[in-house]
Every structure is written in structure tokens, then in C-alpha cells.
Amino acid sequence: MKKIVVFGSTGLLGKPVTQALIEAGFAVTVMVRNENLAKKLFPKATIIKGDLKNESDVEKAIAGQEGIFLSLSVLQTEKENEWHTEQQGLDTIIKIARTQQIKRIGYLSSLVHLYQGMNGFDWWVFRIKQEAVRKIKESGIAYTIFYPSTFMESIAYQARQGDMIALGGKSAYPLYYIAAEDYAQQVANSFKILHDENKDYIVQGPEAFTQDEAAKVFIKYYTKEKLRTLWAPMFLMKIMGLFTQKFNYGYHIVTALNKYPEKFEASQTWEELGKPTITLKAFAEKIGER
Q1: How far apart are the C-alpha atoms of 56 and 54, rounded to whole Å?
Q2: Which intervals hold domain NAD(P)-binding (predicted)?
């Protein structure tokens, strides 16, 4: 396989995957809305300006490709009854992929979405993710689905609010934080080694921390400026979620992260796709140098 099209290439997790695929020697095409940004990020990629809502754009992007990689997500501000990339957008991609010579679909899912149905937990975002996995597995196209633990980038770019790292509730289980760069290398390796087999990969990093422990490690080794933690009780997040969609999203994702019984399950992934090497300490130090 040589030619791969990436949907969601300019996102926080899509960028390192796209770069890793390019560096691995694949002929990468990206379909984006912001053409100028994509040209700056991926000067060696073929860039197609388009929108997932437009079927003809998707058809143009997929034509002539051998592989597809999907780095899609539900935005924190989106509501259940709206259009979603992982729902209607995915439907369009699969529909067109079936008519082309696509050999493999790679998809970024999540490990924590497996909390759906545990302890009575039910969230429409996780239902969309469950359905996305089902649709891909029933597409008739060989697939690789990645289920990553919490990304280290979530501390630096999502939990961080100014000079504070926002935390909610208390972790019942430690999380195997993974750096997006290590994950991206595993994705690139999967496209190198796989043929027509179907694969599910748990993606976890070399160390496990509760969210509070992870925040403390990040703060200790991030030297660019002094940071501190800000803790919010879950009941307060739940109340605020009644008034704003972003806090509603935050309440649900933090609840799942705090309660999902994560254990180490990435042995096969490490064996087949390579062992992650980036520690949270090294990640924080590198981010602090930028």
C-alpha cells in the first residue's frame, strides 16, 4: 500500500499521524477546509479542499487511493441532533470507499468510550463512537481500529486553562497516558505491516498515572511558566452542564475517565507496532521548550 487519504488531518491528533505517514514514505492526500493551513503543515502532501458534508468532495479525495485514515471527533460544543463527522460524515466515507479500490480503513476510536453501559452510564457521544466501530467493521473493507488511552496532549491543550490545569472529581484507576507522536508512529507502522487482516489495537503509554498525578508530573517538568491545578467537584460540573454544552461534554467525559477500569492491554500493540518511548516527564519538558 502506497496511497493513503487522511480525513481530520489538521486536528490535534490528526497532525502527527499525517506527518508520520508522510515520513514513512506513503503518498498522502488530505481533504481539508483550510487549504492554506494544510499547505503549511504538510508541504509534501496532496491537498484537496473539501467538506465532509459534500459527497462529491469526499469522492474526489478517495478516488485512486488505497487506504483511508480517519481522525474524527465530536466537538465539545456539538449537540446530539446535529450533523457529526463520526456519524453522517463516516456514512459518506464508507459509502464511497465501497465503490473504490480501498484496501484498508484506519480509525481513531478511544479506550474510554468502552465505559458506555458500565454502572448505568449512557452518553450519546459514546453511542456515536460505538456505532462508528460497528459501521467500519461491517463495511466489508479491512480495518484497523485504534483505542487509545488518554493523550498527554490533553493535559497541555485541553485541561490547561491559562496558568491552571483543570481537574474534575477523582480518578478511581490510573491511566496509561500516551504521546500523540508515539501513537502516530504506531499508526504508520500498521499501514506498513498489515495486509488483508482486521485489527483492533489498544494504545497505551509506558507509565500509568491518575489524572491528579499526571497533572503534578506535567507541572513539575514544564518549565516555561509556573502552573497550578484547579480542582472542580463533579456536582458543580454537572450543574454547569445544564446551561452550557461544553460543560455538559466535560462532565460526561471526566466521569468516564474517572471511573473506567483501565488496565494494561497494549502488549500486542507494542509487539506488532512498536513500544512507546515518550514519558510524561519528557513530554512536559519538550512542550516547555517551545
Answers
A1: 6
A2: 8-154
On the CB side of 65, how many CA atoms lie within 13 Å of its CA?
29
Contact 165, 284 (CB under 8 A): no
Residue in 6, 20, 33 with CA at minimum distance from that of residue 184: 20
Residue spans of alpha helices (H) in the chain: 14-23, 35-41, 55-62, 90-97, 124-137, 153-154, 180-193, 211-221, 234-241, 245-259, 267-273, 280-289
Q: Which residue has the cell 467500519?
A: 136
3-289, superfamily in CATH?
NAD(P)-binding Rossmann-like Domain (3.40.50.720)
Domain boundaries, the chain: 3-289
Provide the Cα torsion 111, 117, 123, 125; round to 10°: 40
Q: How many of the other CB atoms lie within 10 Å of CB of 91?
A: 14
For residues 6 and 69, the answer to whether their CB atoms sit within 8 Å is yes
C-beta of residue 101 within 8 angstroms of C-beta of residue 139: no
Let me know: does 172 contact 208? Beta carbons within 8 Å: no
Residue 74 CB partners (closer than 8 Å, separation 6+): 84, 85, 86, 125, 128
pTM of the predicted model as reported, rounded to 2 decimal places: 0.95
Q: What is the pLDDT of residue 130?
A: 98
| Cell numbers describing residue 260 | 473506567
Instruction: Count the neighbouring beta carbons within 10 Å of the beta carbon of residue 122.
Output: 10
Residue 31 pLDDT class (50, 70, 90 cuts): very high
Cα–Cα distance between 157 and 162 in angstroms, integer? 10
CA angle 31, 33, 39 (to 5 degrees): 70
